[in-house]
Amino acid sequence: MIEFFNTILYPIKLGEAWVMYAWHWLFDLIGLPTGWAWALSIVGLTVVVRVLLIPLFVRQIHSSRKMQLIQPEMQKIQKKYKGKRDPESQKAQQAEIMDLYRRTGTNPFSSCLPILLQSPFFFALFQLLNNLKSIAEGNIQGGGSPVGPITKAVALSIEDSLIFGSRLSDAFLTSPGISTKILAAVLIAAMSVTTFTTQHQLMRKNMPASALDNPFAKQQKVLLYLMPIFFAISGINFPIGVLIYWTTTNLWTMGQQFYVIRNMPAPGSLAYQAMEERDRRKGRATKHVTVPGLEAQLAEEAEALKSGQRQQPKSKKRAKGGGAPKAGPTAGTPPETGSKPAQGDKQPGTNGPQPVRKKKPKTKKPSSAQERG
Question: Domain boundaries in the chain?
Answer without folding.
Answer: 2-70+106-280
